[in-house]
Amino acid sequence: MADRYLTNEDLEARFSALDAFLVAHQSLWRPAPFTERELSWERTHPKLSAWLRCRSLAEADAQHTTPHELNAPAPFGEWASQALQLAALGPLPSQQIHAVSNRLSVDVPGRKWTQIQAFAGHLAFQHAPSHWLDWCAGKGHLGRVLAGKESRLTALEHDPQLVADGQALSERHGLIEASHIQQDVLQADVLRHLGHDTTPVALHACGDLHTTLIQHACTANVPALAVAPCCYNRTNATVYVPFSQRGKASALQLDRKDLGLPMTETVTAGQRVRQQRDQSMARRLAFDLLQRRLRGVDAYLPTPSLDTCWLKQPLSAFCAHLAECKGIELPPQIDWQALETAGWERLAEVRNLELVRGLFRRPLEMWLLLDRALLLSEHGYRVNIGTFCPPDVTPRNVMLLAERDD
Ligand SMILES: C[S@@+](CC[C@H](N)C(=O)[O-])C[C@H]1O[C@@H](n2cnc3c(N)ncnc32)[C@H](O)[C@@H]1O
After folding, report:
1. Burial class of residue 193, CB neighbours in 10 A (0-12, 13-18, 19+)
2. CA gap 76, 51 in Å, rounded
3. What is the 135 CA–ligand 1 centroid distance (Å)?
4. Which of 144, 148, 292, 329 is the most buried (most CB within 10 A)?
5. Is residue 303 part of a domain?
């Protein structure tokens, strides 16, 4: 059966199944192989561990976006099929968008324009909105596509330059009913923009930005809203406080680091960016091996992020700088060549061990989405959750559509 999108009737059951799965397998997805040299599950599954640790970096990377397809020793396949089944999600019904003037795409980067069209093409509300509220709008490209010349548009954005650019673009395109307003959406006075006639939309509003919208929407009783969340870990809360009653009853306790797991899928980075990221990680892992040895403490030591120009320096200079930052004295004789090799070997191990965590990226994201959806449903909204574009357009391709029943 083809994957289908979820409706109100599915929310509770899917959330409970995901919750049980995530709680039962915490030891598989919580510890990060980058910071821990040995993971607790490796002792209980030595065959799987040894198999993963022997594979190359290229082999790991080839499977990064499809870890469930890996033909690894048991019980990997069992975890993979459960994860796949629990995270299954089909596309939302699509709808015709009113003829969008190609002129509107001017100044919009190609991938962003594709995302905007896909988002707009899946906003199938029963009642046509008359006043769109583009939440964290940037220049308001999405809002302009939705409002066209027929409906009102209010675009909220805190960066004054983007507000001014957005207003100028709306005027250039003849959208007289558009107002771009400078507003920090995390301030309480944002509530004045939410009312019985406004339909908020948020495309890729990070962490607290989209959860604030969902909570305010419930309070203000907006007729409908659509949110495509991203960056769940961009939150001021150090510990995740679930939004829904069902979420609050869960035994799952998530911190900011856990909330970063859904974002560890990288599909959009180009070749050069990937090479830089690999080199930087291999070097950090090399430094990690060194600092453990020198300190005589087998524990990860967080280090500050460095500008990419440091990658052009030899490993010895890179490590000397980090050592200085952490107050570690380097001995004169270090085999830098051997350390460089060891760093790359560690990176291959880390990426392969990450494939186990990779199985849980989407289930955890679904759990977080369902917690938001259940809050809306508890407030009388009919909620649909589904994809609005394929993952190669954006890995954050899930949209939550909510409309009041009445
Ligand atoms: C990832 S961008 C998304 C922009 C737009 N929705 C899109 O898809 O092109 C997030 C936007 O939120 C804005 N933003 C960040 N924090 C904000 C805040 N506290 N209040 C209002 N806007 C904010 C940023 O300036 C940025 O334009």
Report:
1. middle
2. 11
3. 8
4. 144
5. yes
Query: Mean pLDDT for the chain?
Result: 94
Cβ-contact 73, 355 below 8 angstroms: no
- Answer yes or no: is the C-beta of 138 below 6 A from any ligand 1 atom: yes
Closest CA to 368 of 275, 237, 223, 269: 237
**Is residue 216 in a domain?**
no
Q: How many domains does the chain have?
A: 1
- Tokens 């950090």, located at residue: 284
Instruction: Identify whether 352 is part of a domain.
Output: yes
- Residue 225: phi, psi to the nearest 5? -160, 160
**What is the Å distance from ligand 1's center to 162 Cα?**
9
> Mind listing the pLDDT tens digit for each residue in 19-63?
999 999 999 999 999 999 999 999 999 999 999 999 999 999 999
Cis peptide, bond prior to residue 73, ω within 30 of zero: no
The three-class DSSP label of residue 153 is strand
Encoded tokens for 312: 């052009």
**pLDDT digit string (tens) for 315-348?**
999 999 999 999 999 999 999 999 999 999 999 9
Looking at ligand 1, which atom is closest to the CA of residue 187? 19
Question: Which is the closest atom of ligand 1 to the Cα of 159?
Answer: 25
Contacts by 314-322, CB closer than 8 A, 24 or more apart = 315/283, 315/286, 315/339, 315/340, 315/343, 318/283, 318/287, 319/283, 319/286, 319/287, 319/290, 322/287, 322/291
Other C-beta atoms within 10 Å of 78: how many?
A: 9
Contact 228, 203 (CB under 8 A): yes
3-class state of residue 169 by DSSP: helix
Separation of CA 210 and ligand 1 centre (Å): 10
The two structure tokens encoding residue 296: 């005589």
Establish whether residue 298 lines the binding site of ligand 1, counting it when its CB lies within 6 angstroms of any ligand atom.
no
Per-residue pLDDT band at 314 (split at 50, 70, 90): very high
Query: Within 37-153, where are the H helices?
Result: 40-44, 46-53, 57-62, 76-87, 110-120, 141-147
**Domain span at 339:** 271-357
